[in-house]
From TrEMBL:
<keyword id="KW-0813">Transport</keyword>
<keyword id="KW-1278">Translocase</keyword>
<feature type="domain" description="ABC transporter">
    <location>
        <begin position="4"/>
        <end position="235"/>
    </location>
</feature>
<dbReference type="GO" id="GO:0055052">
    <property type="term" value="C:ATP-binding cassette (ABC) transporter complex, substrate-binding subunit-containing"/>
</dbReference>
<dbReference type="GO" id="GO:0005524">
    <property type="term" value="F:ATP binding"/>
</dbReference>
<keyword id="KW-1003">Cell membrane</keyword>
<dbReference type="GO" id="GO:0140359">
    <property type="term" value="F:ABC-type transporter activity"/>
</dbReference>
<dbReference type="GO" id="GO:0016887">
    <property type="term" value="F:ATP hydrolysis activity"/>
</dbReference>
<keyword id="KW-0067">ATP-binding</keyword>
<keyword id="KW-0472">Membrane</keyword>
<protein>
    <submittedName>
        <fullName>ABC transporter related protein</fullName>
    </submittedName>
</protein>
<keyword id="KW-0547">Nucleotide-binding</keyword>
<dbReference type="GO" id="GO:0008643">
    <property type="term" value="P:carbohydrate transport"/>
</dbReference>
């Protein structure tokens, strides 16, 4: 496990779009931190920068105190879960989950053990021999989570992982995520555009708008004591 620190990071794309402007944010070691904001406010860019999938123009990203600006994505030792599950359609669930371990040359016995443990944790033991096309959306998302868990990364990055699910399943999966975090205790930076999701999932929530963090606080305080009119409007605070 490790803290994730974004220290005054900025990202401008080649077309001149400033996606992130001087953003600072810290997920403490073992914390589940939510980053919430409207579409286009820079959430995915921030996560992708932490993962090393975007090169930042300014600032520093630290994982477990180590500056990772120049560390290649596979060497950052963090796992990302997306809204599109990005499973390999031709591989079974078991092989999808074991894939990152094979790439890292983890011994077969150890890989099997980790896949079995993660499958039990997520309640997908009975699905291991199926292919992604034979799974529901919720099951696919569990497999995607399983693939992240087996790597035993020092942090998770989740980019709207529930947004492709129907409303009922989304609510159920929120509870499962909270439980999963309690059991694994891995530092998680979780991105969503959904205020209700942010309020239910996070101990601490960072509200982002226009590439700038507006406030970081408990859900209760964001609602009761918004730092500015933007946060008040976004969280639906009483006037
Ligand atoms: P969010 O995830 O909060 O919806 P993004 O981080 O995807 O927001 O995008 C932030 C801003 O950066 C948006 O204005 C978006 O259009 C822009 N953007 C994202 N990716 C690119 C890109 N590859 N090239 C140019 N602009 C981009
Ligand atoms: Mg996004």
């Amino acid at each position: 496990m490790a803290a994730i620190e974004l220290d005054r990071i900025s990202k401008r794309f080649a077309d001149g779009t400033v996606a992130i402007d001087d953003l600072s944010l810290t997920a403490a070691d073992g914390e589940f931190l939510i980053l919430v904001g409207p579409s286009g406010c820079g959430k995915s860019t921030a996560l992708r920068s932490v993962a090393g999938l975007e090169t930042i123009d300014g600032g520093e990203i630290r994982i477990g105190g180590e500056v990772v600006n120049d560390v290649a994505p596979p060497d950052r030792d963090i796992a990302m879960v997306f809204q599109s599950y990005a499973l390999y359609p031709h591989l079974t669930v078991e092989r999808n989950m074991a894939f990152p371990l094979r790439m890292r040359k983890v011994a077969a016995a150890e890989a099997n053990r980790r896949v079995a443990d993660a499958a039990a944790l997520l309640g997908i033991e009975a699905l291991l021999q199926r292919k992604p096309g034979q799974l529901s959306g919720g099951q696919r998302q569990r497999v995607a989570m399983g693939r992240a868990i087996v790597r035993q990364p020092r942090a998770f990055l989740m980019d709207e992982p529930l947004s492709n699910l129907d409303a009922k399943l989304r609510v159920q999966m929120r509870a499962e995520l909270v439980n999963l975090h309690r059991r694994l205790g891995v530092t998680t930076l979780y991105v969503t555009h959904d205020q209700v999701e942010a309020m239910t999932l996070g101990d601490r929530v960072a509200v982002l708008n226009g590439g700038i963090v507006q406030q970081v606080d408990s859900p209760h305080r964001l609602y009761r004591r918004p730092a500015n009119t933007y946060v008040a409007g976004f969280m639906g605070s009483p006037p």
